[in-house]
Amino acid sequence: MTAAVAAVDLGATSGRVMVGQVGPETLELRQVGRFPNGPVRTPDGLHWNLQQLFSHVLDGLRSASRWDESIASIGIDSWAVDYALLRGGRVLGEPFHYRDDRTARGVDLVHGQAPFSTLYARNGLQFLPFNTVYQLAVEREAGMLDVADRMLLVPDLMAHYLTGAEVAEATNASTTGLLDVTTQEWDGELMDLLGLPRRLFPRIVHPGERIGTLLPHVADVTGLAAATPVVAVGSHDTASAVVATPMTEPGGAYISCGTWGLVGVETETPILTRTAEHANFTNEGGVDGRTRFLHNVMGLWILSETIRWWERDGETVDLQKLLAQAAAVPACEHIFDANDAVFSPPGDMPGRIAGWLGERGLQVPASRAEMARCIIESLAQAFADAVHDAGALSAQEVRRIHITGGGSLNELLCQRTADRSGLPVMAGPVEATAIGNVLVQGRALGAITGSLESLRDLVARTFKPRVFEPKGH
Ligand code: LRH
């Protein structure tokens, strides 16, 4: 038996709706909708426009139902940590974007009540200033939590708009900082300590569970059957990407490479040692109770934001041409630390890179091609370092690196990551996140069975990776 499902995959720069056909020997995806996404600045800060995003999702689902009448379920994934506050089912303003700088205040507030080591022991999360727990501390100070009765993470909000249900999918809830890393249940004691009302946090659901069926008006608008269920997938996009990373043998590390480069290994249990804490490694919840032991590296954001800056006066920069030129110039001698928080906010990225290098007396790239090359080299080194750390901290011998997502199409990045790590890089699939979303739905429907290993076997058989052997520094 094969099943047809719709996968909604929302990224920080674009979203897509895919129709997936899945069965024991079948794994096919077709994109039926693609739309831009990005921050919108209003006087109070940087936001997402989730109403608009939802209307794109509805359009995409309509195209999905036209493409295949037999869509049997819908799964939704997105970037992590961001949320909407609701009262009585009504959304209280557009959600903030995690790059909004108000989070610095949240860090002070939370760490004043619970030092980072205490948090790490409970939630296992690396320090990222935008983790939901810090954002909620700011909401509390602003009085918003006196009004709100619910917090829904972005994919859970989309599921709510489609079905009316209010749930928190576990893999994404694990990025809030408020989930107990060992039980994968909400940490009520921590909420009490931080003055976050427990009522905000809905029931946890796990990937594979049914969230609800379509509201009548959603069925009307999309042309899908009203009985179509929305099924929980790894709703944190990185969790879905890791499901579809073809690690078919031991010794595989992964880099889910899009806006961010999420670099790590899969483990059976969390690693909460002091060394993991100091290396700022995270223990995010994976599908089937696995742990995603990884580190966030800034990722292609640095390149895309650089290009966006160059294009600010209306010029168009051809990415493929730029990368070809970058490959042709010699590898720069000096690289920057792609983990430095200075590269996190939107804005003049080339200026910040030049500033970072210049302040340290390092050579600043003289042309756009050199700048692009310097970015790729810096990312490749940060990836290689994080792979090395992931192996050492988890006591796993890493023998190969899988790069999935948009970064898997960037040959220079793949090759230089292989060169700088001394390990072969297996590139692809590019749509790992949507594939992971489709696979978990397929298994929930009974169209495929088995562990993550057998799902990954199917991925490896269907999408042949491109191999980059290390060639030396
Ligand atoms: C990647 C991602 C990442 C998070 C960040 C906010 O899209 O979900 O795993 O840390 O966005």
TrEMBL record:
Claim: Kinase is one of the keywords in the record: yes
SUPFAM superfamilies named in the record: Actin-like ATPase domain
Swiss-Prot/TrEMBL keywords: ATP-binding, Disulfide bond, Kinase, Nucleotide-binding, Rhamnose metabolism, Transferase
Regions annotated as coiled coil: none
Acetylation is among the record's keywords: no
Domain Carbohydrate kinase FGGY N-terminal: from-to ranges: 7-243
Molecular-function annotations in GO: ATP binding; glycerol kinase activity; rhamnulokinase activity
EC numbers, comma separated: 2.7.1.-
Gene Ontology CC, one term: cytosol
Biological process per Gene Ontology, one example term: rhamnose catabolic process
Residue ranges constituting the Carbohydrate kinase FGGY C-terminal domain according to the UniProt record: 253-444
Family that this chain belongs to: Belongs to the FGGY kinase family.
PANTHER family (UniProt xref): L-RHAMNULOKINASE, SUGAR KINASE
Record-given protein name: Rhamnulokinase family protein
